[in-house]
Amino acid sequence: MGLEFVSDFVFRISDLNFQVLMKTTINKLSECVGQEAELSGWVYHSRHSGKVAFIVLRDGTGLCQCVIEKGKVADDVFEQLIRLGQESSLVIAGVVRAEPRSPGGYELAVTAAQIICPTQDYPITPKEHGTEFLMKNRHLHLRSQRPWCIGRIRHTVIDAIRRFFNDNGFTLVDTPIFTAAAGEGEQTLFEVDYFGKPMFLSQTGQLYLECAAMSFGKVYCFGPTFRAEKSKTRRHLTEFWMVEPEVAYIDLAGLLELAENFVSGIVRRVLKDNRAELEALGADIATLEKIAPPFYRLTYTEAAQILTSERTVKFMAGQLETFKMQKTAIEKQIGDIEAAEKAGGLKQWQKDKNTKLLIDLRAELAELEIKIENNPRHAQLAAEFKWGKDLGGSDETIISLMHDKPVFVTHYPRAAKAFYMKTDRGNRKVVENFDLLASQGFGEIIGGSVREDDYQSLLDRIGEEGYKPEDYAWYLDLRKYGSVPHGGFGLGVERTVAWITGERHIRQCIAFPRMMDNVCI
RNA sequence: UCCCCGAUAGCUCAAUUGGUAGAGCGGGCGGCUGUUAACCGCCAGGUCGUAGGUUCGAGCCCUACUCGGGGAGCCA
From the CA of A135, how many Å to the C1' of B47? Predict the structure, then answer.
């Protein structure tokens, strides 16, 4: 829409001494108190009562209340401004002053404004919306506060990741996204037609990174990852972002140390740069503040012992008891509200509040019912856990719920893990690998290992898996020419953001999510 | 791949046992000098997901389909 469309609404900024104004952004208003400043943004919401109107402006850096008083601006300006719908775009100028009642702590006493694009009927209102509606309107939903807060935190997480590796002597190596099929896990790869030949979208850069580590010593790659698994859960995307460091001359203890410093550093940066966003999202800041090395370290065997122990039986029973008590409490709350509604005599605003409350309570109740339903199955799965199986999602959840900081689980059975992981020197049945389970039941955010650096052992493992050695010729070469102990890990960005923000669904942690059954826009 | 739930106004949801489809928000108009998801009054807004069936009568019951949500499994 060009300016022609809105020409009726435009009044010239140049007529109003705009040349003396400072162009600024909402996050810098504290530097402009007492001065006239100009902001460019969108109407987040607005109200007016008689001779005073309030526009809460959104400019991408924050929210600011703009006060328009009749008499202090021209009457026709006032009339035009109070008619602006949500998400109308405008340039607005006024005197900056501190005001605790404004969202960001500062407000603008408006002296002039230029309407860029007036808007009516913006689909996303300040009220409740369902997931389907918001995902179909994801192009607009990104402007709302919650996606904005999560997007800002995601940005910090990614910046912290890059900074951590760049400051610690790592070289960035971009690994390919088109990859040839190489035995492993083909059913989970997306196939593409590459000039008539099948190629696959990358699900890890690791094998390529190992080559690069032998050149640069410490390397990392950071890019999109594609998994064609038919997993329809809140923890899965088909396209997600993963960062993978790989280090020459490192052992398992070194990797764990690297990983815990890395994750702690990310959390610290978010706490420093995005405290307001964390608060707005209702994240568990107290728990995040405890995230610091050392993390807990368990071997797989110890984890298996915990899962089959009396402790887990009691823990699961305790959880079930808690869930049931919470359920009873919520049911009572719902009953009370319904009784009050039936009794009548409520003001409209009280009814509104109750309606909203009931929606929340019923959602919470549904969540609890699922937990109550799943608890016995998960308890049974844990109790029947046999050494040799991979840890299931519910097993990881149980272990992580028992700890207030992230937990490393190391030394998984060799048979349950990938061929390239190094067999443990002391125990031939396990590999030198680790998963990092985020606290509070968020599950795995990192998986990594020391790599098999011995030529013959790697060749044997490739044979055991039924792969063809010729498919791995270049990978085997790394073990022929100056092989060294080395290893690395991969961290899922969206899972990390979900864990830090307390967001229960991973799809909210990427701008345009791709899931098995749904690709938003 | 399997299981459960849902689809009613632009949005979020009601509608008793099968008996004339309702509220809030959003939109429009009017009122209010500091509001914070403001408030008060009025107005407009519907082929109840689609197709069949049962019935005097279906938003409600039955069958199939479509779309969405949640869970299991599998995985990171």
Answer: 27
